[in-house]
Write a structure and sequence with these properties.
mainly alpha; single chain; Serine Threonine Protein Phosphatase 5, Tetratricopeptide repeat; TPR-like_helical_dom_sf
Length: 310
Amino acid sequence: MTSSELYHTKQQFILGAYQSVINLALPDPSSSDYIPTLLYQARSHIALHNPKAAIDIIPEDNANVALKAVVALARYIDAAGSSETDNLLEEMRDLSVEIEGDDAESTESDKAYVRVLAGTAFACAGEVEEALETLGADTEDLEAVAVIVQIYLSINRPDLAKKEYERSKRWAEDDLLLQLIESNIGLITGKDGYSNTNSFYTEQLGNPSLTSPHILTARGVTRILRNEIPEAKSDLEESLQQQKNDAETLAAYVVATGLGPAKKDESEESWTRLLNEHSTHPLVVEVSGKADLFDEAASKFVVPPVATVA
């Protein structure tokens, strides 16, 4: 049975309160909560784009397969763009095979963590089929379902994401993660004018024990889609105060300032900041690509001479 402390840690992680999870005191190593809490803290570091910190908190002599998997994921994220990524993905494959062996000594919980972490790595690498196979087509692990849904949404298949969500409703309780999955799907599909998604985020932000810039950003994006631009800006500004260098929040803020009655200088300043601090963000890459295409087309256009009257 999950302790109240671990339950709280899991809820904080699910809602993106990553810094709060990191700040928690670790249980005694002899406690059954020790490894799950350590995993949530390491994953929180990864979510905050600090994979080295995730590696540093895992004991070097650990033999737990789930801890090995989170270290492998952190190393993979840290090595992005280098030649090491293939070897690290292979390490993930080895761990995935290890937990399926007849002589595997890992607990079912550890096996579930490995599948989620490996599936995440494969999805990041663009290996969609391998990620889905690793996570399991008929899985009854809600964290795995959440990753599967994100994969389907990322490849523009909200129909499959909804199907996976409906399947999980048959066996999952009215879990917070299940509600988050539903909200994520609603954010993509725009069902009922994003009302359910907006209500979910607002409800979570009303929790006095939660400090989650992630949820603030999510509600800010939802409000942009609902054309509530001043409210969206307010959420995003508050989120940036809590997490100053978050690329997704800054990108959303760029959109909000561009759509709202903001001063031109404010909009240009936020765009310049995103361009300088997060040059590989998809929004920057796409806009820069469109600008290059425009310049290329313009260079081929020959301005005709001014017509004169004979």
